[in-house]
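Re: the request from the purification team.
They wanted to know what the chain is likely to look like in 3D before they choose a buffer screen. I agreed to run a prediction and write the result into the notebook, where they can find it.
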Amino acid sequence: MQALENRFAPEGESQASDEFGSSGFKTQFQDPEPTSDNQARHYVGALKAQVTLGRLGRHIMNEREKVKPGDSETVRQSHWADLALNAVAFEHGKQLTNENYRQLHSLIRRDVCP
């Protein structure tokens, strides 16, 4: 988990890298908001939340993506893409164990990539 975080989300919450975006993700996961389109970072955050915090992690991640009255269409689409990606990352996190963590790349290719 730490290696994934170091590669795709090294800055923590305060900064998002612009190295990654939404390309390479299925359409439903593509984030149209240019300031929050680092979907690799988002996937890793949701996966880590599931693995380390379980249901609480899922709740925290999904609460951050709630659509609010007055949100622009772009922001709403961004939240929907992130919620869809959360669901996949959470499912992957539930399936991982110390014995099968090397299967993660196959799960990502199957469920996240077009």
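For the purification team: The first helix runs from residue 2 to 8.
Please add any questions underneath this entry.
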